[in-house]
């Protein structure tokens, strides 16, 4: 059974940074695209970023391009999202996914991790 466990969220101020992690287990992920989505209260889920199996190809939503960096460590079956220059509008529940399609959002697989950015 596939399990994804997100961590690293928290309450920060605008301009701060956070690094999210997604630990994957239950199958081999090293040959799968992975990514991040987010869902803010009262809003639709939003695709954030995706990365191919090898890590040499990435895709970002325009809203985070230049501020967020997605990466992965296949040896650790872990996906990361480095978030810099955070804005209040980045406040959301962040969650990861496997076998994702860049640009397309998906429902949460796990609990997600909450990011709250104060102004």
Structure, explained:
The chain is mainly β. 0% of the residues lie in helices and 48% in strands. It contains no helices and ten strands. It has strands at residues 3-7, 10-13, 18-25, 34-39, 46-51, 58-60, 68-73, 78-83, 92-98, 113-118. Strands 2-10-9-4-5-6 form a six-stranded mixed β-sheet, with no helix packed on it. Strands 1-3-8-7 form a four-stranded antiparallel β-sheet, with no helix packed on it. Strand 4 and strand 5 (46-51) form a beta hairpin. It starts with a strand and ends with a strand. The mean pLDDT is 95.
Quick take:
The protein has about 120 residues and is mainly beta. It is about 0% helix and about 50% strand.
Architecture blueprint of SSEs:
Elements: E1 3-7, E2 10-13, E3 18-25, E4 34-39, E5 46-51, E6 58-60, E7 68-73, E8 78-83, E9 92-98, E10 113-118
Parallel strand pairs: 2-10
Antiparallel strand pairs: 1-3, 3-8, 4-5, 4-9, 5-6, 7-8, 9-10
